[in-house]
Amino acid sequence: MPPKPEPRRTRMPRRLIAIIPTAIICQWTSIGKLMDMILALPSSSGGGVATATVEADLASLFPKKFTIDGEATAASEEEEDRPRPFSFSACLLIKDSNVILPEWLAYHYTVLPLRRLIVAVDPLSHMDPRPILDAYGSIGMNITVWMDEAAYWNASAIPHQNFSDYHELVHGRYKDNADPHGDYVKLKQHQNRQKFFVEACLRTLRDEGRDWTIHLDVDEYLAFNYHDKHEGLPSHCKGNTTCERDYARAIEDGTHYRARLDESSTAAEHIDRHHDGEFDNPDKPCVMIARFLFVSKECDPEENDIQRGLIDDDDDDGGGGFNASMFHTLRYRYRTLHPQRNGKSIIDVSRYDGRHVLNPHRLLGKLCTGNNGQVRNDEKSFRVHHHVGSWESFVSLGFDSRGESMFRARNNEKNLVVDDTSPGYRRYNGTTWVSRFAQLVGRERALALTQSVRAREELEKMTIVIHQQEAHALRKDVALLNAALEE
């Protein structure tokens, strides 16, 4: 595997300039000196944390810096003063996701509220998320980072391969699929890592005395399952006129708990109101929720103002200065009409019995609600929004199989509808989660923690992509030259 290139800070490759999204250019203009400060941070791919000089410059934004020591963070003092009625926890496995990680953190900090997080970093990552996670500790998130998979790998089940062996396995012998089982081996390694991580995460959170916990990917967002005009009547009522009439009446008159989501500003508040009996079932500590795919198609700007709900710069009470195009949850509203095949789980870890995780969707098997991974969305309080996102966030580093063909396939969904529950807080005083996040932590800090970090990380990632493409092209040229000389 070639060494990781050091990003250029003083001179930008010409080809990179051509592919920088317009949103970033606009963003640089809107945040001025703050963006200059953020761009001065060290490269995440270099694995370092902020220097003393930069830390001093950011002191006003992050007065209580959250330091990362080794592989785990120290507990934040602010986190102990948890939001009422309770706060959520989460397990997150990531690989080169620095571009969208800030939005995921800020969104769930606001909507859940998320205050405890355990992160496992894929050993093949090119980018280090710890500087980003460090900054979120300053607003009360208690974050543990596992950089080495040996910290959670179940060696008694499957022997753990050390880091160098794993690199050789994935990027050496099987890099060009010379072995017919190469893709299979890579898939099994990923699946085992995911299962072992989730089991270790759930055990850790249970031993800490935590309760409701989410396990989502970094491109997935837990959302209120507001009744959508596109969904029609429930599938389980098909052909039953009485059932259809009663359901429609309950939604219309507000007696159904999906029609009462407006009473709560966070997921924790809704659960605490006991409207939804699934969260009170003593025999089912795992609640399944449906998942909808949001594609990378933007609405007509003349028909849809994605800035709707973001406060102007002149208003000092909330989210002024935010650019909605820098947030997937605000920018993309086209989604599939029907849920994806498999949903995701919300788990009360206080009742986790230590059983093995079967898959990343229905984590606890029969202890989860429903009969399988598929979910009846019409009876759920929450759902997951799975965003394909922009190409800059989707493209992977390191020449793996996740390329343009997969990006196009993900965006080739049929039967799309415009989700009329987006932005996420459409029904909550006409605002968005972004402006609410700004109200919680302050506007300047919110800007620094979200779109400013994203702009920096997107530039960083595309710089690495360009360097890798140049190195790959050079290797191909050398191979062709050697072949010609041998002839």
Structure, explained:
With 487 residues, the protein is of the alpha/beta class. Helices cover 36% and strands 12% of the residues. It is built from 17 helices and 13 strands. Strands 5-4-3-6-11-8 form a 6-stranded mixed sheet, sandwiched between helices. Strands 7-12-9 form a 3-stranded mixed sheet. The protein has a two-stranded antiparallel ribbon with strand order 1-2. β3 (88-94), α6 and β4 form a beta-alpha-beta unit. α3 crosses α17 and α15 packs across α16 (443-449). The longest helix has 36 residues, at 451-486. The chain is globular and about 80 Å long. Mean pLDDT is 75; it is low at 1-80, 162-178 and 313-319.
Task: Characterize this entry briefly.
With 487 residues, the chain is of the alpha/beta class. Helices cover 36% and strands 12% of the residues. The chain has 17 helices and 13 strands.
Q: How are helices and strands ordered from N to C?
A: HHHHEEHEHEHEHHEEHHEEHEEEHHEHHH
Q: For the CA atoms, what is the radius of gyration? A: 23 Å
Question: On the 0-100 scale, what is the average pLDDT?
Answer: 75
Largest sheet: 6 strands, mixed
Distance between the termini: 28 Å
Share of helix among residues? 25-40%
Structural class: alpha/beta
**Strand portion:** 5-15%
Categorize the overall geometry.
globular
Number of helices: 17
Q: Can you tell me the residue ranges where pLDDT is under 50 for at least 5 consecutive residues?
A: 1-80, 162-178, 313-319
How many β strands by DSSP?
13
